[in-house]
User: Fold Decarboxylase, group II from Photobacterium gaetbulicola Gung47.
Amino acid sequence: MADSCLSLLHDSEANQLGSLFQRHYDAAFADYFSRDPAKWPVFSEPGLNRIHQFRQQKLAPNERIAAYPDGLALQQLLAGHASIAQQRLVPNGMPDDMLTFAAALSKDWENPSSVENVVTMPCDPAIYGSMMGAMANPNLAYSEYAGMADQLEKYVIRQIANQVGYDPEQSTGIFTQGGTFCNLYGYLLGLRKSLPTALQHGMGRVPDFRIINSQGGHYSNMTNLSLLGVDIKDKTIRIKVTDSHDMDYEDLERQLRACFAVNCRVPTIMITMGTTDTFAVDRIKPVYELRNRLCEEYEVEVAPHIHVDAAVGWSMIFFLDYDFARNPLDINPVTLAGIERTISRVKELKYADSFTVDFHKWGYVPYTSSLVMIKNKQDMKALENEPENFSYFEHDLQGQTHLQSTIECSRGAVGVFGAYAALKYMGIEGYQTILAHCLQNANYFRHQLLKQGNVKLMAPENQGPSVGFRIYNPQWVDDVVAEFAKEQQCMTHPEYMELLRRNSQWHRNAFKGRGKVGLYTNWVEFISRSAYNTAGKYSYIPGEKAVFMNPATGRSQIDLFMRHYC
Ligand SMILES: *Cc1c(COP(=O)(O)O)cnc(C)c1O
Assistant:
């Protein structure tokens, strides 16, 4: 399937925009992303309306302040002396100038050219839902402080459980502060299960252990481990990745065996469903089966906890039941093949012990709305702190909530309300339509880049929203595949290290010189990696990327970029 997708990328027929698809997309965009007061009356509020009107001009980032009424003066006020006003301000029903200015001039994720990273404009229903949550202000720490919001949280958790194939009665979840915190829970669950004494005595006197994650993982893995007091250098094994950036299972098996053979515990195996820059999707079932097999073979008492960082990739769960044969949405052939490839892996999410869901990324919900899903609610017991620490709360009610097990005390519910509203209005089909639009854009962009002849795509078999690429000077390079293959050997050939440096510098100059036109792409230092040397060391390969999560982006922005790309 990967191969069929790669050859289709060259085929302009397979990249066409179907007219039926276009109708689905237009309707979904109008209903969920247009800030239309007729559909969502909240947008008729004068301040919100002013923000929207300004953003509708779709100005380039460097034109915006000058175009905003009194923009420069307002900016000077913000940069100037700051003190709290002595006198109270009587509301007059008019929008506040500074609030409106700061909101309108925040990064404009509605601009169709905004493709910098895994960040999006939120959808209309989720904005509305979040506002309701903000107004009600429930605190999910404790059921008495949450009221009905507690049940809304559990409802959304059951919706996600049903969608991925978790048992909704056996599983649970926690809305928390960002994907980083979700992954923190993933690590903590493993540590508390495998090294229970650490709850009281810290990491100083625990039996020998190793945490396992992937070299392709997000940097939050490292911030979390450091926070947890895990020695990143000596107690963490980062598994090698393949050329497609997913986990190398042979290396994983080797490392797990090496640990178990000497009775070294493995609290958590962290894998990734959709890496941020290259959308590598690790297979989950093979990890699950390997873990079970080795635990039996070595008689390991507490199995490693498998957490899947699906912060970006979770959105693909909306395609789990898509009828690929009938293709009711008229998704184009290359994108359909790509989604089918990804789904063959996303299906395995139910084998994870827990996973990260970032609604605020590819779920179009305002920040922050992250959910960590946990397959077996008994696992929460391992996180429980001593009940006497919770003297603020009535004893009988504590057991009904996750109070004793959460990292946070106060837990806001704005994300729950936003997520509920987005899921309710967009439904599976609404999400499928918007996500497929993004993926069709990504493939159209890949197709255009491939046509140029001087561009090497990074792992195009990973059919996600991010497109990473390197542009070469056509005067120096006529075969980009051969050139990239040389660059990948830079750890063993010093002359290729120099080649990599020179080509990267040329591309970076082209990127800088072009400015932001058509697509506001980004430069990243690690878009791919070199081959490993015999010591297992590798070098980062830099490049450019665009992430197609913006529902407003269309082919005209891509075409404009291509006219200026180098
Ligand atoms: C964004 C991201 C995170 C971190 O999530 P936040 O919500 O930004 O804290 C973790 N893992 C991956 C793969 C991500 O893309």
Remarks:
- Residues 414-452 form the longest helix (39 residues).
- The mean pLDDT is 96.
- The chain is about 45% helix and 10% strand.
